[in-house]
Amino acid sequence: MSLHLEVVNDSQRSEFVHPAGPLELGRGSQRDVPRHVIQGDKSVSRDQLRLEEVGSAMVRLENLSATTAVMIPGVEPIPPSQSRDVRLPLTLTVGMTRIAIRLDPLPADDSGNTLPPPAPVTPSAPPPGLRSLPSSGDTGSPPPAGAHRTHSPTMDEVGGIGPWLERIIGLQKSAGDSREFHDKAARALVDLVGLDLGLVLLQQASGAWSIAGSAVDSDMTTVRYSRTLLEAVVAQRRTFFDDIDSIDGANSSASLTDVESGVASPVFGTNDDVVGVLYGVRTTQGLVTRGPITALEAQLVQLLAGSIGATLARSTANRARATFEQFFTRELSEQLALNPDLLDGRDAEVSLLFCDIRGFSRVSERLGSAGTMEWVRDVMGVLSDCVLAHSGVLVDYIGDEMIAMWGAPVAQEDHASLACRAAIDMLAALPGLDRRWAERIGEPTTFGIGINSGIACVGNTGSRHKFKYGPLGNTVNLASRVQGATKYVRSPILVTGATRARLGGRIATRRICRVRVVNISEPVDLHELGHPDDPGWEALQRGYEGALTAFEKGDFHTAAHILGGLLQERPNDGPSLLLLSRVANCLVAPDDDFEPCWVLPGK
Question: Is the pLDDT of residue 566 over 90?
């Protein structure tokens, strides 16, 4: 069967049918496979997605991008350059673009264009006395036999479409989560349709309804609504209008006997669920009647309800994005705003980086509280830029320490390499910081950076009062201890053997020692990251590791000889000085129970 696709973003909304065979989507031009070009979303890659049917109601999705993940609600995202077989129908997201895919083909009209899909819910008959507007856009159910109906007015008779468009544009400029916005929407309903009461009703998590906005056009109008009608709107996802006072089961405490006619239209949320209802009525004022709500008026109300839903969704996305951008890159923030399920607690393979500013107490004493805050803010800004430049997540700032993570909430195959490159950039940024601060703080700024990789549980580690996305587990604890070990080992960047094993030789390292850290029983191998601009690094790494191997075998004289040569070339190499002191201790005070694994004296 053919595939029916719907592609939606802020600049594009397209529906089409693709016959059997592969199909590609992306911002780039046509290749050797049929392609649908996604417009207006720069977060989508030029070559983003390839799909092809692989069985009954199954499609293979191949992520062609090297950078952007494909998000599927409720399941793991598809990382760059990977593929997955999934069952139809499905809705996925890339960047800010939503793509819905199903097997049901759309019929074509005489021009060859596809027709809109049927309403997603098969509608039942509307409540007695009411007509409805199905989502397919027809004019609603015919009036009951014998009922009095006036003709539907023309645009001129309702004042033209201009006032409606002006109101809608004005509403979209308002903050969607404010009372002012909802009151404006209710007032537009009253003014432009000629109603006596307009309400914006939002449904709470408990199922109860709250009045978010209201407007009345007469002192004789009481604010009330029919819960039966609201339930019908939610169940059938349609706009109902006309003879509201005939509804069975209307709330007895809010009698609708003086209501002449009314309208209720669904407000849809970001997940295409009904989150609210735009509701209005005309009342009978004495003996004066003004006729029923017409189909055209109901369609205008439906348009207004759609604008309310879009504005609410935009406000929700903006709030989520503003929260996420405190921790994540902008591209990832946009994905999380559309797929917040990615933040649910789960195990993930990650790399953790802890970076500590050395000499913080001394410097803060010299600078005072205000100066210290200015200094730390500058340093943390530089460190954060390095993390975000390498697609990392800012987990936390704790005084003079920063914590960053790679590998979650979106999987990153090269998370260890990204973390190490960010650390190297942090050291490269020190000269710039010294130019700004060395004279004021009286010494150079220095860092201690520790990196560890492994499985951690990641998610919202905060509370219902404060969001805090981060990791928990032994992988995190060990990364913190490795950062502390930099003080003892006299190296600015240390990574564990688990991290080094994931680098695949792409970054130069040297093995420094094996240690036991506080409160973690298993020993860990520590490695120092090489300096990309150091031409003598290879010789240092080869010589030092030779001395370390000799030391671990108990051949202290050979180790001392090698280290002596190294220190002639590099007299300030911290790890060589430390190892030489350990060798000297073993030569001066031999120990029959010699243990090369070093138990660190503190955190």
Answer: yes
- φ, ψ for residue 115 (rounded to 5)? -90, 155
Q: In this structure, what are the phi and psi dihedrals at residue 552, rounded to the nearest 5 degrees? A: -65, -25
What pLDDT sits at residue 138?
38
Q: How many residues does the chain have?
A: 603
Residue 61: beta bridge partners?
51, 84
Closest among 400, 407, 409 to 499, alpha carbons compared:
407
Structural domain harbouring 286: 130-142+153-317
Q: Which of 20-24, 118-122, 214-218 has the lowest mean pLDDT?
A: 118-122
Residues 312 and 423 in one domain: no
Distances in Å between the Cα of 379 and the Cα atoms of 327, 373, 484, 566 are 17, 10, 19, 33
| Same domain flag for 420 and 302 | no
Same domain, 227 and 159: yes
* Residues 118-145 pLDDT 10s: 333 334 455 555 666 655 333 333 333 3
* Token pair recorded at residue 350: 């990650």
Say if 535 falls within a structural domain: no
Domain of 268, CATH number, reads: 3.30.450.40
pLDDT in tens, 482-516: 999 999 999 999 999 999 999 988 899 999 999 99
Number of folded domains that form the chain: 3
Distance CA 366, CA 369 (A): 9
Please indicate, yes or no, whether residues 221 and 369 belong to a single structural domain of this protein: no
pLDDT at 147: 33
Comparing CA positions, the residue from 228, 221, 264 lying closest to residue 246 is 228
- Within 10 Å of residue 164's Cβ, how many Cβ atoms? 20
